[in-house]
Amino acid sequence: VVGLHATDTCSVFLAVWARMAGVHIPDIEAALYDQRVVIRILGMRRTMFVVPIGAWETIHQSTTAEIADRERRRSEKFIAEAAEVDDPARWFDALCQRTLATLRDTGGVTTAEITPLVDGLDTRLAVGVGTANEATMSVASRVLFQLGAEGRAVRGRPRGSWVSSQYRWFSIEDWVEIPAHQVDPAQARVDLVRRYLAAFGPATETDMVWWTGWTKTNVGVALAALGVEAVRVDDGVAYALDPDDADEPVEPWVALLPGLDPTTMGWKERAWYLGDHGPALFDRNGNAGPTVWANGKVVGGWAQVAGGEVVWQLLEDVGSEAEANIEERAGALTTWLGGKVVMPRFPSPLQRELASR
Predict the structure, then answer these.
(1) Within 13 Å, how many C-alpha atoms sit on residue 289's CB side?
(2) Residue 289: is it exposed, middle or buried by C-beta count within 10 angstroms (0-12/13-18/19+)?
(3) Quick one: which of 119, 146, 192, 295 has the fewest CB in 10 Å?
(4) Residues 153 and 114: beta-carbon distance below 8 Å
(5) Is residue 114 a contact partner of residue 102, using CB atoms and an 8 Å limit?
(6) Which residues pair with 170 in a beta bridge?
(7) Are 229 and 238 a contacting pair, CB within 8 Å?
C-alpha cells in the first residue's frame, strides 16, 4: 500500500491489524519507536504517512521537498503579515536553526516543551485576518512542521499511549539513519509511481494525479519513463505494471478497515469499489470513515459503542458466508482493542449513527 495514512494516529494501528495475523499493539509500537523500521513522513497530498525507511527518500525527493518549499513561503507570508520583523525569511530561517539545535540538545521534546526553550517560538501569528476563518496560531507549530517537511526533524514516540497524537520531536539524525539526498526528483517520481501501481494498479491517470498531488505533466512523464501498459477499465484507460496479474483468482475475503485507510483512499475514481455508498461512509471533505469490505468492494461501515464493542452495518447484501466472516472479524477486533474505544478523527455519517446506539 506504499504507506499507511497517519493523519489519524489510531488508523496506523488498525490498518496493520487488518493486514497482519497475530500482530499486537506493542509489536506495532516497537516497529515505530524501537526498531524504527518505519517512519512518519509528510507525503502525498500534504498528508502524513507511515512508510518503510527504504521509501523515505523516494517520497521526500518526489513530493515532500516541493511541499517544504511551498510551506516555507507560506510561513514567511504569515510572519510578514503578523510579526514585527524586518526580514521575515531570515527571521524564520534563524528560528528553524535554533529550534533544530535545541532538538539535538534535548533529545525528544513536544511542541509545548520546546516552545519556552527557544527565543521566538512563542510568537503568535494571525491568519485569515478579515475573513470568517480568522485565527491565531503558534509559530512553533510552523517551525516544527517545516523541519519535518525538510527532512531535518521527525515525529517520534508520542506522549502518552498509542492513541495519543501529541508527539515528541527529534532531529532526524538522532532518530534514524536515512539515505543521503542522492535521488534526482524526476527519478524519485518514477520510483513512486512504480510503487503506487504495484499496490493499486490498474489505476487511471486521474487516480495518480490525485493520489500523488502532482501535476498531470509530472505524472505523465513518470508513466512514460516506466513504460507501463494501458488497459481498459470502466472509467476509461488505466495503467498497470503487469495487467496479467489482474486475472489471477483471489480467495473470498472480508476486512474491517479504519478511517483514512490507504486502500479506501487509494483511488480518485471510486465507483467500481465504493458504489453509491460514499455519502454514508465519507465526510463532506472526502475523508473516509471506517469501512467494511467484502471481496474487493466496500459494503458497509463499522464503529465502536460505549464499552468498546465493534458494531457494523451492511449497505448491500453480501451473502450469509461473508456476513458470518464479517461478524467474526468484528469480534476479533473487539478483543484486540481490549475495551479501548477508538474514535476516528474524521467520522462518517454511518460511523456516528452506529456509535450512538
Answers:
(1) 27
(2) buried
(3) 119
(4) no
(5) yes
(6) 154
(7) no
Residues whose CB is less than 8 angstroms from the CB of residue 303 and which lie 6 or more positions away in sequence, other chains included: 290, 310, 311, 312, 350, 351, 352, 353, 354, 355
Nearest-angstrom CA–CA distance, 279 and 131? 29
Per the DSSP assignment, residues forming a β-bridge with 127 are 135
Is 237 within 8 Å of 230 (Cβ atoms)?
A: yes
Other C-beta atoms lying within 10 Å of the C-beta of residue 76: 18
pLDDT in tens, 221-240: 999 999 898 999 887 899 99
For residue 293, the Cα-to-chain-centroid distance in whole angstroms is: 20
256: CB partners within 8 A, 6+ apart: 18, 290, 291, 292, 293, 302, 310, 312, 326, 329, 330, 333
Q: Which residues, 6 or more positions from 291, have their beta carbon under 8 angstroms from its beta carbon? A: 256, 257, 261, 264, 281, 298, 300, 301, 302
According to DSSP H, which parts of the chain are helical? Answer: 9-19, 25-29, 56-59, 65-82, 88-106, 111-114, 139-149, 172-175, 185-200, 205-212, 216-226, 271-274, 278-281, 320-337, 349-355
Burial (CB count within 10 angstroms: exposed 0-12, middle 13-18, buried 19+), residue 341? middle
Element housing 357 (H / E): none
Q: Model confidence at 129, in pLDDT bands (50, 70, 90)?
A: low
CA dihedral sign, ordered 126, 128, 134, 137 = negative
Q: Are 265 and 228 in contact (CB under 8 A)?
A: no
Q: Report how far residue 205's alpha carbon sits from residue 86's, in angstroms, rounded to the nearest whole number.
A: 45
Q: What is the mean pLDDT of residues 341-354?
A: 96
Tens of pLDDT along 256-303?
Answer: 999 999 999 999 999 999 999 999 999 999 999 999 999 999 999 999
Residues 6+ apart with CB under 8 A from 275: 297, 298, 315, 316
Q: Rounded to the nearest 10 degrees, what angle do helices 139-149 and 88-106 cross at?
A: 80
Confirm if 34 and 76 have CB atoms less than 8 A apart. Answer: no
**Cα–Cα–Cα angle for 16, 21, 24, rounded to 5 degrees:** 60
> pTM of this prediction?
0.93
